[in-house]
Amino acid sequence: MVGSSGRVVVTGGAGLIGSALVWQLNREGIDDIVVVDRLGTSEKWRHLVPLHFADYLDAEEFFARIAAQPDAFGEIASVFHLGACSSTTERDASYLIANNVRCSQEIARWALARGARFTYASSAATYGAREHDMREDLDPHSLRPLNMYGYSKHLFDLWMRREGLRDRAVAIKYFNVYGPNEDHKGTMRSVVAKAFEQIREHGTIELFKSYREGIVDGEQTRDFLYVKDAAAITAFLARTPQAAGIYNVGSGVERNWRDLAGAVFAALRLPQRIEYVEMPEVLRGKYQYRTVATIDRLRAAGWTALMTSLEDGVADYVRNYLATGAVLGTESAAASSPLPTFSATR
């Protein structure tokens, strides 16, 4: 487990949650870390610059090496498998199966065969259209993911269960994670990041209208979790010996989109200007009007810390990262920068 002798492996280590996890481990005094990712032509490499780790490998090189030389990295204490295609709009099912299922099976077998603590990212997307009672003990065969990404995560969860490996690992169903180091995610960036750009460009934030009776525009809810909390909880679960199986990782509090928009405007010290726009027809039949994590299992495992409030998380993200261009680990250098001046009447 984290903190015991041996190296730590973090796949997806340059991504949103992965880089935050490496940052968190560094804060805990851990730097004997092998970071695995696919940097490609993106700017994800910037997320690694301030972090401390022993080695970086491209994903293809890493998987080839553990197949040819399973003990190539010496003693492994803990493996965090956070690398995946996280696009909910990805249409290539074969790619998602190869990347999110087959590669996950390969690294799970490798990690557990070495006696390493194995912690991996599942997703709240596995719950599908369910809007209430999102519990980890639901019959997995009752879940109906709404997109291929969610289904690929569900398939791996089912495989872990079928192989009898679930009780030897920690599976984390992350809810709506937002925060620094998501600039590479394009259309999959959080609404906080998109709202910041909309204010910069137009002075307004666009939110979808509601198409459900009894729910007014902007009152659709989500469980928003700041990435620093997500990283801290991930590290905690990995070092907690009694933790095993599936854990919802969210704030446990539902907040609406209007709350989130208001938090972004407040962080920028601007008056609210929200415009409600039509939702694309392709999304209307799949849209969830409410999500909130049931975090009883997480609390029972010993996580007692308060989650960062939406207002505090958004303020930190907007002021110390989005407005300055900083990445995790460079906050202090950018903290003295003044807030940008945006027009609220453009």
Descriptive notes:
This protein is of the alpha/beta class and 346 residues long. The protein folds into two domains: 7-175 and 224-249, NAD(P)-binding Rossmann-like Domain (Rossmann fold); 183-222 and 255-289 and 310-325, Alpha-Beta Complex (UDP-galactose 4-epimerase, domain 1), CATH 3.90.25.10. It is built from twelve helices and 13 strands. Helix 1 links the parallel strand 1 (7-11) and strand 2. The N and C termini lie far apart (53 Å). The model has no long low-confidence stretch (mean pLDDT 93).
Reported by name, the CATH topology of the largest domain is: Rossmann fold
Number of separate helices: 12
Largest sheet: 7 strands, parallel
Number of separate strands: 13
Radius of gyration, in angstroms, nearest whole number: 20 Å
Mind telling me which CATH architecture of the largest domain this is?
A: 3-Layer(aba) Sandwich
N- to C-terminal separation? 53 Å
The top level CATH class name of the largest domain: Alpha Beta
* Global shape: globular
Q: Unreliable stretches, pLDDT < 50, 5 or more residues?
A: none
Q: Helix amount, in percent?
A: 25-40%
Range of strand content: 15-25%
Q: What class would the helix/strand composition place it in?
A: alpha/beta
Order of helices and strands: EHEHEHEHEHEEHEEEHEEHEHHHH
Summarize the structure.
This protein has helices spanning about 15-25, 45-50, 60-70, 95-115, 150-160, 190-200, 225-240, 255-265, 280-285, 295-300, 310-320, 330-335; strands at about 5-10, 35, 55-60, 75-80, 115-120, 170-175, 175-180, 205-210, 220, 225, 245-250, 255, 275.
